[in-house]
Amino acid sequence: MKIATYNINGINGRIDNLVRWLMNSKPDVVCLQELKAEDQKFPEKVLLKAGYHAIWQGQKSWNGVAILSRYGEIQETRRGLDGDPEDTHSRYIEAFINGVVIGCLYLPNGNPFPGPKFDYKLKWIKRLTKHAKKLETFNLPVALIGDYNIMPTDLDTYKAEKYLDNALFRPEARKLFRNLLNQGWTDAIRKLYPQKRIYTFWDYLRNAYGRDAGLRLDHFLLNDKLEGNLISAGVDKEVRGWEHSSDHAPVWIELSKSFRDIPA
To answer: What is the pLDDT of residue 258?
Structure first.
């Protein structure tokens, strides 16, 4: 089972790149972030033609999350997190696919620091952590996947000193990320590559991609029912170099357990 995450940074403007990557990489399940499209403008028919069913929660101009699957129609289990009834951001959607609970998330950026956006980020992480604890009681394989907008360690940025006052790297956010891990979640990339510099995002400015001046923002957190099935992971870095690309690259993991066969 191959699961991927991709911050598409505007799904309709980059739909050709998305379909091209889907045809090349053939992930079974995909979590998308930053759709930047209202629900009625989500390109469902294009994705169905490419072989993927979808559920989504859109939002005009900002945010938006979706889950794609080659396994057929998707059983949605949740959208949004508890804890703030006034939060209207489209940042979390969840489904049960092929025996696995898939939580697709777009965690707040939080910049500028300090300020209300950073405060919102910290509160959102705490809400996610509370929901993650609830998911653990279900006794099912669970993966929390997406753009966390957090660099957990110095290895996750090309130049740590540049980001000391950036919300992506602030110790308050990193501590909350560690608290989440300490519930029993495994950072899939770090499990397989504990000391390797791996990036998933390159800014559009200053030739960041060409210089490989990247950040690791996109993560897979696996619970103990799932992490034992992890066999490989990677970043499709070349996609970031395609014309009119997102500033993120697709990231993927492969699990040894396949719940049923799907078309090649």
So the answer is: 57
What the block records as the tokens of 257 is 């357990």
Q: Judge whether 37 lies within some domain.
A: yes
Q: What is the CATH number of the domain that holds 72?
A: 3.60.10.10
Number of domains in the chain: 1
CA–centroid distance for 258 within its chain: 21
Residue 264 lies in a domain: no
Q: In the predicted model, is pLDDT for residue 215 greater than 80?
A: yes
The pLDDT value recorded for residue 77 is 98
Query: Considering only CA atoms, which of 80, 83, 15 is closest in space to residue 52?
Result: 15
Over residues 216-234, mean pLDDT = 97
pLDDT over 80 at 262, yes or no: no
